[in-house]
Design a protein that fits this description.
Strands 1-2-6-5-4-3 form a six-stranded antiparallel β-sheet. Helix 3 packs across helix 8. The protein is built from eleven helices and six strands. By secondary structure, the chain is α+β, with helices and mostly antiparallel strands. The longest helix is centred in the middle third of the chain and has 30 residues. It is 46% helix and 19% strand.
Amino acid sequence: MSTGLEALTSKEKETLRLILRGHDAKSSARTLGLSVHTVNERLREARRKLGVTSSREAARQLLAEEGDDPENLGDKALGDALAGPGAAQDTASATQRRVWFGLGPGHALTLAGALAMSLILAALFVPASPMTVLAPTRALEAAADQSEAAGAARAAGDFLKLIDESRWAESYAATGSQFRQLNTLERWSEVSTRVRPPLGKILTRIVVDNEYVPAPPEGYRLVKFASTYADGTNQVESVSLAWEDGAWKVVGIVIG
């Protein structure tokens, strides 16, 4: 029977070797000419096969098997782990994730799922750019980023349309696993029914921002819309999405 290391594919090992050299998911994607999602899928599969929760630990197991020079490791920031004090901050962020619902000024709807500390910690996880990047790699990366941003914007817009039509069950089904672990369909329906209908019909909705936030565990996209409603108010709708099971899933929404 094959061990976890024997089950790793050559592409998964290739990605883990970059982790050993101090890359994170985004800089690995640049180096390999792939999308961040492809790199994250490789790392997730490697962690699953090796039975570990950290890509760094998976990379170290590969190092022990292959006998590479351990001096290449260093204590560099990785996409899913930091050495020293950074690790404590990552752990703290995980324990502080919460969901809360409530009404605020201007019928504000706050439905945040598992992302409470993400924006605060984002700056700690921005990877350094490689010293040299070939032009073809830049073109591949730009195309991947554009495709990722467009897909996230479509998913966010479709999610908001479901809310506009009071299709609570369908909108709940479009959320990620972390959101559903912390929120029931009943709770989602109750709060959405109380808050969204008073705004009235949506009149305009325009994307004003679409960015990748490199926060733990795998980063997410934050798409913002400037919207106007029939009740006369202007709202900023912020939808956070994570890549899960081959699709964009909503993990947080703030309207206000």
